[in-house]
């Protein structure tokens, strides 16, 4: 066999092996994500998928049904945004390490709480022991415009040290809400 033909076959084999590895990683990511859903959520998703499949066999849903669903989802999103003050603009996730018992993922999240923009970057370590999954947040990095507020800078620093996302979101929500009240009050007197 000609050496150039052999090399072409080896290159093709290498490309296919890389593609298989990439698809295996994607499959494992999806499988890992599905472990965090409750049985009830999985059943709801299955029923929804069945309805969609039946809708495709009977014909597509009418545009008015789709429009009603879209309006309902937009209303839900609007309510959650108004209720919490959070509006997320982007999220990315990358798996850094994966073994049978542990997974390390790097997350990037950005958005606004009321009028205060923020960006988070953190690693999420998921460990499985005897069927139980535990998660740990590490390497938390928060980027916010402090707007010359030393208390906000201290809060960001202490939250990064503690690595508590719950404390960050709760405190930021309260701070941003009162920040908006103060801003409107000062605008009123200008």
TrEMBL record:
Pfam families: CENP-P. Residues 6-40 form a coiled coil. GO terms for biological process: CENP-A containing chromatin assembly. The lineage of its organism: Eukaryota, Metazoa, Chordata, Craniata, Vertebrata. GO terms for cellular component: chromosome, centromeric region; nucleus. InterPro entries: CENP-P. This is CENPP protein. It comes from Oreocharis arfaki (tit berrypecker). Keywords: Coiled coil.
